[in-house]
Design brief:
mainly beta; five-stranded antiparallel sheet
């Protein structure tokens, strides 16, 4: 007879979950009225263990996947199947669920809505245990009072021994907590879920964007819009950072969009921008208490690049480059009382766009983003002078804010399939990942180190849209983020980027054979630019990242999986495209201490440059016309040039299409037309087609793909009367709130701080 305490003999552990009994050893769940217990898979029971460890608390999908499916690359589908199986098990005989045992939290995860108790009984099956409970209910045993009085002395001794035991138990518990972090015991309800260092203080459906903290971080202002607002209506909302109900601050007219709230240094006023349906743009001032009228302090008509913040004196506002009617470059300062402007004296190259200026906590510096489409963080003395470049990323920034000590800059950055928060340390140039997923647009209070940010976790799928009717259907099922669908010229192959298998990869498939879908091993694509096919549909040119996160250009043969890194002489390549007769067009970053980019035409036989054009953001080559099309960093519009990139033969085809923010949302069709995916007040995903007539873009037609669903702005393609685009299958955002680490815990110590906070919360 085996020893019942031997590790070889499993000891069942039972839980009472709501009205049901769960046997973790046999994986059986018995509900009242059911004909018998239901057995679930080991993964489903692993999910239940995690949820049961913290009943009532939300456990994130990423935590569940990491703990229950370790050392694998699972998709969300496996977790969804496990949750579905558990919900079916928590039903009665009729199969109908009287109350939801497991609740889905939008953009969060799952939580158990019923109480959980550990049942310390002898080893038995669920069915046997339930039957024994019905036949022999427990009866409490009462001892005579005389026996209690006769053993008072022994009770005192036992009490002392109990205190010693509690102390020993505390030491043992601490040891076990450390040990089980790496190796959870099979007899525990489940591993402790990872607690996030932030909390979400808004929970409305739709979008909450552009947070601005009050000076003491007790309040936050932000722009809010509903998920179905086809006219893009948005309002400035104000609420406490303790998750209280928000109140509307602004009163936009129908069709207007209020955004970019900025709290004054004394906390009494909020400046914000309003874009109206007729194209007018105004900067308004409003009492933070909401009592009083809006007051116009500046016009920004036609601007697609608007940013501003208060100066420390609380009497003036600092503006970044303002495009539109005035088209003013450089940083400027406005006195809202007199309406007078004054410029900041500092040098810069022609065409530089300086965006999102903020004054450092000590009042000595103005930080800003230069050329935000493919830009970097800079700073300049507040009285003017020589600007200093802080980062050398050439990246798409998603907002930024000074660290409380003024020695670093916290910024949002798109990496792979998500936006994350990073800290750039000014003195040594070190950049630290802050470990916060799906985060952007930070706003930090220097007074107490609190930070608000936008938490957005969209899901994107690939769709085929019929150009004549606007009807669309999904290409591949996925719970991940699929984007950049690029169809081959033969119309039979497609590549796209996705995190559907747990990491960001380049995927390939034949459209007539869904089973051919697979990732291309060894390629981590750069999200800034989509891949481009060769004219014979045999090869791809891809911007990718190496092991050191440095960009490189790869040529790939999808059928065989062959990969070759191209020997380019330039630095920081951002995009490459096939040209005629062995020509390769490459967009490269400028030198380490310069901004901007350069489009270079390389001869592939010698790898020597044949021509150059400055400040290019996107390039396409049209084989039919033999022309190069490109967009620029410093302005909206489309340009056309010969393959030699001869400066004297350049033609500007449009001054508005594409806009500088949607410079990746266009393509050239097989018949030489230009397609452009943008948004309109009544249509959030609109496809337009243009022809070149008399060296200008002439509009042909437009189709509303979807009035309320957002499209990805990075990559699309067309063939055989259809468009291939990436559309949001799930979208929305909330405002997150947290304490950022003190200065002494920055750099590598930041991760230790995060771990300590997670353990405290757990």
């Amino acid at each position: 007879m085996p020893n019942p305490m031997s590790p070889d003999v499993p000891t069942p552990l039972r839980l009472r979950v709501g009205d049901g009994v769960v046997d973790l050893a046999t994986r059986e769940i018995l509900m009242p009225g059911a004909r018998g217990p239901r057995r679930v898979t080991p993964k489903a029971i692993g999910v239940l263990r995690m949820l049961a460890r913290v009943p009532g608390a939300v456990v994130g999908r990423s935590e569940l996947l990491a703990e229950v499916w370790p050392d694998t690359l699972p998709t969300d589908d496996v977790l969804t199947q496990a949750i579905t199986q558990l919900r079916k098990a928590f039903t009665g005989e009729t199969g109908s669920v009287d109350k939801r045992y497991i609740e889905t939290i939008a953009k969060g995860g799952y939580r158990l809505t019923v109480p959980v108790d550990v049942m310390h009984a002898e080893s038995a099956s669920v069915a046997d245990h339930t039957a024994q409970e019905a036949e022999s209910p427990p009866v409490p045993h009462r001892r005579p009072a005389s026996a209690i009085h006769g053993h008072r002395g022994w009770l005192l001794v036992c009490a002392a021994l109990l205190l010693l035991a509690i102390g020993a138990l505390g030491v043992w518990t601490t040891f076990e907590a450390v040990r089980t972090a790496a190796d959870p015991l099979s007899g525990s309800p489940g591993p402790t879920p990872v607690s996030l260092p932030y909390r979400l203080i808004t929970n409305a459906t739709g979008f909450e964007l552009s947070p601005s903290l009050s000076p003491d971080a007790s309040m936050v202002a932000y722009s809010a819009s509903g998920p179905g607002d086809a006219d893009r209506q948005s309002t400035i909302m104000v609420q406490t950072t303790s998750s209280a109900a928000p109140r509307p601050l602004s009163r936009p007219p129908p069709g207007a969009r209020d955004d970019l709230p900025a709290w004054s240094p004394d906390g009494r006023e909020i400046a914000f921008a309003r874009w109206e349906a007729n194209g007018a743009c105004r900067v308004l001032l409003m009492p933070a208490a909401g009592i009083g009228d809006e007051r116009e302090i500046a016009r920004c008509d036609g601007s697609d690049l608007l940013s501003f913040d208060w100066l420390p004196n609380g009497k003036e506002l600092l503006f970044g480059t303002m495009t539109g009617a005035e088209n003013e470059t450089r940083l400027r300062i406005l006195d809202p009382v007199s309406g007078r402007w004054r410029g900041l004296d500092y040098p810069g190259a022609a065409g530089d766009l300086d965006f999102a200026p903020q004054v450092s906590p000590d009042g000595r510096w103005i930080g800003f983003i230069r050329n935000p489409q493919m830009g970097d963080l800079w700073r300049v003395p507040i009285e003017g002078g020589t600007p200093e470049q802080i980062t050398h990323l050439g990246a798409e920034f998603r907002g930024w804010s000074w660290s409380p000590d003024g020695e670093g800059m916290v910024f949002g950055l798109r990496v792979d399939s998500e936006a994350r928060l990073y800290l750039a340390q000014i003195d040594d140039g070190m950049i630290v990942d802050m470990g916060i997923e799906d985060a952007q647009s930070p706003s930090i209070s220097a007074a107490n180190g609190m930070m608000a940010f936008v938490h957005r976790r969209p899901q994107f799928g690939l769709y085929r849209v019929e150009s004549e009717t606007g009807e669309w259907r999904r290409l591949f099922t996925s719970s991940g983020r699929d984007s950049q669908p690029i169809l081959a010229p033969d119309g039979r192959q497609i590549v796209f980027t996705s995190d559907r298998a747990g990491r960001f990869e380049l995927w390939w498939s034949r459209l007539d054979s869904p089973d051919s879908l697979r990732p291309i091993a060894g390629v981590r694509p750069d999200t800034r630019q989509p891949p481009i096919w060769s004219a014979d549909s045999r090869h791809l040119i891809v911007t990718a990242l190496d092991d050191a996160n440095a960009p490189m250009i790869l040529e790939i043969e999808p059928e065989s999986g062959r990969i070759e890194r191209l020997p380019l002489s330039g630095s920081r390549p951002a995009q490459a495209a096939y040209g005629p007769s062995g020509t390769l067009f490459v967009i490269e970053g400028a030198g380490a201490d310069e901004g901007g980019t350069t489009l270079v035409a390389y001869d592939r036989t010698t790898w020597k440059p044949k021509g150059r054009i400055s400040d290019v953001s996107q390039v396409r080559f049209d084989k039919a016309s033999g022309r190069v099309f490109y967009t620029r960093l410093d302005a909206s519009g489309l340009w056309m040039a010969p393959p030699t990139l001869d400066m004297g033969a350049i033609v500007r085809l449009s001054e508005s299409v594409p806009s500088r923010w949607r410079y990746r949302s266009w393509s050239v069709t097989e018949d030489g037309a230009i397609i452009y995916l943008d948004a309109a007040p009544s249509c959030r995903s609109r496809m337009s087609r243009y022809r070149i007539e008399d060296q200008l873009l002439a509009s042909v037609d437009s189709v509303c793909v979807d009035p309320v669903i957002h499209s990805s702005t990075n990559g699309l393609s067309t063939a055989n009367g259809a468009w291939f685009v990436s559309l949001a299958s799930e979208d929305g955002s909330d405002i997150g709130f947290m304490t950022i680490p003190p200065p002494r815990l920055q750099h590598a110590g930041f991760f230790k701080w995060l771990i300590s906070k997670r353990k405290q919360a757990s």
